[in-house]
Amino acid sequence: MTALIFDCDGVLGDTERDGHLPAFNATFEHFGLPVRWSVEDYGRLLKIGGGKERLATLLDDPDVVKAAGSPSTDDERTQVVAAWHQYKTKAFTDLIAAGVVPPRPGVRRIITEALREGWTVAVASTSAGPSVRAVLTGAVGADVAARVPVFAGDVVPRKKPDPAVYELAVHQLALVRDHTLVIEDSSNGLLAASGAGLSTVVTVSGYTRDEDFSGAALVVSSLGDPEGEQLEVLADPWNIGPVSALTLTELAELAGRKGGQT
């Protein structure tokens, strides 16, 4: 049996710029914080895995600390970040429910076909569980999403590029690593999957196209749709040669292949 593990943000939907960024800025406005992240600011912050972790960087700014009530102990700072993150998660899921971020090409097709063929399909993400569930449901519908286990948020103590979330998925789902393929969009995600001994297909997103994807089994612009947006091949070390859209046959062939041919 083959297993597919999808990242969420940038893979199921191009959520970072049109979903997470406005949700963060809405949170700053709600709490009266003297900060707004630009598209460029947020691109740099994406190197930090996890929303809470990105929010915690604000506590290095004395003006933000003052606006937040001057938390001084570690517990107080943790509580402040948790409150911000809770509000931000609700703002994000509201945007997803409103249909602001459509699914990326091929996501619904591949997940539906894989489940029909008896494959294991899961999602592993650094984002909060409710956010991931909202994106997954928006991408594939509630009935299909209910069949897909999600590993997200604080289920592991260390976020990507640490491999912990992929190790957890492999362990809990009893997956065979050489029969498992990860779909990621970022170098941090690729490092996490590779660290867990898993092959990775990268579908680049708006923020990640220029990152280093050395070690990926395939790098493409998207999964592609035969009758819609066709994929662009950016790196094909195994000479899979997808034309307009990836198929289950090609994905199964890539499982267990890590980087270029040897």
Automatic annotation (TrEMBL):
Organism field: Kribbella rubisoli
Keyword Hydrolase: yes
GO molecular function: hydrolase activity
UniProt xrefs under PANTHER family: CBBY-LIKE PROTEIN, XYLULOSE-1,5-BISPHOSPHATE (XUBP) PHOSPHATASE
Annotated protein name in UniProt: HAD superfamily hydrolase (TIGR01509 family)
Keywords: Hydrolase
One family name in Pfam for this protein: Hydrolase
Keyword Hydrolase: yes
Domain of life from the UniProt record: Bacteria
UniProt-listed Gene3D superfamilies: HAD superfamily/HAD-like, Putative phosphatase, domain 2
SUPFAM superfamilies for the chain: HAD-like (SSF56784)
InterPro entries: CbbY-like (IPR044999), HAD-like_sf (IPR036412), HAD-SF_hydro_IA (IPR006439), HAD_sf (IPR023214), PGP-like_dom2 (IPR023198)
Signal peptide: none
